[in-house]
Every structure is written in structure tokens, then in C-alpha cells.
């Protein structure tokens, strides 16, 4: 089966303490949003300590139009994607011409030609690589992209698939949007860039820390289009998300996980490594209350969120990176993320230290 050869994440040099973001948000919202005093505790309730922002906090103080923010999105995405990919290639002992396929996942900016084309051109990667740019999956994009990378490698044992997820959520912040959704988003979302390489089993398997793909599942929930997404405004991307997301998780996630695992003769109790997209504190609580798993099975997920914030699609791969670098238990692993649609994405893994 296909396996993970390397993974690299970006910690931006302008990482910011949550307390600083809280003070800034209060100053910004207070004149036009009377509820700010009552809602400001949201920042503390997230339990986030630092936010992975691609720019210093004062960058967000001035009003910018969509053109300015999107230009910064393209520039920053390219710069840090290259850094992450270079680390991946070095760790996997590969060269740019070895890449057979590239998947680029993002929902926080626009580019045509797509960013994968810009990356190939900048790095002089294999110009015959198959390109798959993916837009619109939001927080679900990390697991979905990882599934697609492995399915490509499963179909072609000689494949070397590069997956890049870039989400610069802070650049979508609308300074003059004084809605509750924008205020809540300002307490939670952050920026992330991650690259990973998946190799088909025609290549020599890893000598240790073998994370191999077993299967994947996607599900779209009917009549839930309004739960999460963007409203595209003249000024840019306006965030939309519902307070009902934890309820949706409680109503569906157990049944969906059991349905997925049972097709592969695996039970929840067999899972040793839970690689979940955090979403937020209430979502983590909903997972913990709904899934019958002993112990703090979301410790890595929670730590990634607390140290970075919600980086949309990239976050779950930061969690994967933590497992990959800090260690995991031998046995099955389960990746889960939720995104616009409303939808869920799952991947079943086999994880071995030898």
C-alpha cells in the first residue's frame, strides 16, 4: 500500500500570542459591535495560546481590498510552499524531477494559473507531473487531499505524489465586518502551510515509521449547505459557519465512523492513533463525548490547535506531522475532518514503527 515518505509544516516567524490578538480584536470591534464586551471571553474559551499568522498583527490594522489581500495570499503561499517542499524532498531523499503528481489544496485565496503551476515553475519540478488544484473543501481539504494522494499512488505503484495544503485564513479577515461570525472567526482561525510526499508501493518501503494507506470515505450531508462556507463579497471572503456544528457531530460522527470502519473489519476500539482536525474546543468536546474511546485520544489534536489555532485544511496534517515526528502506537490510525457541504472526510491507516 502507499505510504507517507515525508512531511513538513511551517511555523511562521510572526506567530502571535492569543492575548495580543484578543486585545486587538477588542479595540477593533468595540466601537461598532456593542456585544464585544459580552463575547470577548470567546478568545479565552478557545484555549488557544498562540496563533500561526503569516503577517505581524499590525498588518491587519489597515483596511485592504480583495486585490491586495489576494496578491499577498499568492505571494506568501508560493514562498512558504517552496520552503515546505524543499524540506520534504530532503527528508525523503528525492529530487524535484521525481515528483509524478502534485495536489494543491486551499480555500483562502485564488490564483490562475493555480499555485501548483507556480510551484512547479519556481522549483523546476517535473514539468510532466499531473496537477490537481483543489478549492472549496475548507477544513475537510486536508484529509480529502491526503486520500486523493494515496489513491493516486495506489493506482500507480511508481508514483511520487506531492500534497501541499495552504490556508492563509488571516488574509481573509474583513476589517469592516462587525458580524458575530467574523468576531468568532477572529478568535479561532490562523494560517498554515504543509507539504507531504506519498509514495506508491513500487518504491522501497520506509525502514521505520511506516504510515500506510488502507481506505478512505467521503460523505456529504444533505440539506446542510449553509452550515459552513464563504459568502463572496466585493471586499473579499466573508466567513459563514453555524453554531450547530457540534450538534451535527453528536448526531452523526459515531454512526459514520462505525460505518466506515466496519467495511474494513475494524472497530473503534482497534484504533490506536486518532488524527483529527480540531475545528475548535466545542468540536473536540463533541468528539470526546460521542466516540467511545478511553483516555485523551485527541491530545495531539488539541496541542496542535492550542499552539497554532484552526488552520483550516492544513491543521490535520500538522497533527499528522506531530504523530510522525513524536511517535505513535503500532496499529490502525484514523484521520477525520469536517468541512463545507456540510461534509466529512475519513482515512484509515496502518501505522507501524518497524
TrEMBL record:
The Chalcone/stilbene synthase N-terminal domain, residue ranges = 86-201
Tell me yes or no: is Ribosomal protein among this UniProt entry's keywords.
Answer: no
A molecular function (GO) held by this record is: acyltransferase activity, transferring groups other than amino-acyl groups
Keywords per UniProt: Acyltransferase, Transferase
Sorted alphabetically, the Gene Ontology BP terms of this entry are:
polyketide biosynthetic process
Q: Which Pfam family, just one, is annotated for this protein?
A: Chal_sti_synt_N
Query: Active site at which residues?
Result: 139 (acyl-thioester intermediate)
Q: Where is the Chalcone/stilbene synthase C-terminal domain?
A: 223-350
Keyword check for Acyltransferase, yes or no.
yes
Tell me which domain of life the UniProt entry assigns to the organism this sequence originates from.
Answer: Bacteria
Similarity comment text for this entry: Belongs to the thiolase-like superfamily. Chalcone/stilbene synthases family.
Q: What is this protein called?
A: Type III polyketide synthase
Taxonomic lineage:
Bacteria, Pseudomonadati, Bacteroidota, Chitinophagia, Chitinophagales
Amino acid at each position: 500500500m502507499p505510504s507517507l515518505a515525508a512531511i513538513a509544516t511551517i511555523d511562521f516567524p510572526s506567530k502571535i500570542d492569543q492575548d495580543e490578538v484578543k486585545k486587538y480584536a477588542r479595540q477593533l470591534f468595540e466601537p461598532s459591535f456593542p456585544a464585544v464586551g459580552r463575547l470577548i471571553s470567546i478568545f479565552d474559551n478557545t484555549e488557544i495560546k498562540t496563533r500561526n499568522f503569516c503577517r505581524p498583527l499590525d498588518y491587519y490594522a489597515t483596511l485592504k481590498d480583495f486585490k491586495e489581500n489576494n496578491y499577498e495570499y499568492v505571494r506568501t503561499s508560493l514562498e512558504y510552499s517552496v520552503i515546505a517542499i524543499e524540506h520534504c524532498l530532503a527528508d525523503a531523499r528525492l529530487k524535484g524531477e521525481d515528483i509524478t503528481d502534485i495536489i494543491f489544496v486551499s480555500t483562502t485565496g485564488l490564483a490562475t494559473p493555480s499555485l501548483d503551476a507556480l510551484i512547479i515553475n519556481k522549483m523546476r519540478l517535473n514539468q510532466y507531473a499531473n496537477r490537481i488544484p483543489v478549492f472549496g473543501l475548507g477544513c475537510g481539504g486536508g484529509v480529502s487531499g491526503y486520500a486523493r494522494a494515496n489513491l493516486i499512488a495506489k493506482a500507480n505503484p511508481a508514483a511520487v505524489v506531492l500534497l501541499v495544503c495552504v490556508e492563509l485564513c488571516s488574509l481573509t479577515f474583513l476589517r469592516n465586518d462587525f458580524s458575530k461570525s467574523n468576531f468568532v472567526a477572529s478568535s479561532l482561525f490562523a494560517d498554515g502551510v504543509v507539504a507531504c510526499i506519498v509514495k506508491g508501493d513500487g518504491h522501497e518501503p520506509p525502514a521505520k515509521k511506516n504510515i500506510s494507506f488502507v481506505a478512505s470515505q467521503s460523505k456529504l450531508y444533505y440539506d446542510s449547505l449553509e452550515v459552513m462556507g464563504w459568502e463572496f463579497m466585493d471586499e473579499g471572503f466573508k466567513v459563514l459557519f453555524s453554531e450547530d456544528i457540534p450538534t451535527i457531530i453528536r448526531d452523526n460522527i459515531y454512526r459514520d465512523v462505525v460505518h466506515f470502519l466496519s467495511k474494513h473489519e475494524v472497530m473503534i476500539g482497534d484504533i490506536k492513533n486518532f488524527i483529527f482536525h480540531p475545528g475548535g474546543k466545542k468540536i473536540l468536546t463533541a468528539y470526546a463525548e460521542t466516540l467511545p474511546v478511553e483516555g485523551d485520544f485527541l491530545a495531539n489534536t488539541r496541542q496542535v490547535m492550542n499552539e497554532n489555532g484552526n488552520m483550516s485544511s492544513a491543521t490535520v496534517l500538522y497533527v499528522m506531522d506531530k504523530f510522525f515526528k513524536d511517535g505513535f502506537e503500532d496499529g490502525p490510525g484514523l484521520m477525520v475532518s469536517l468541512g463545507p457541504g456540510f461534509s466529512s472526510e475519513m482515512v484509515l491507516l496502518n501505522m507501524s514503527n518497524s
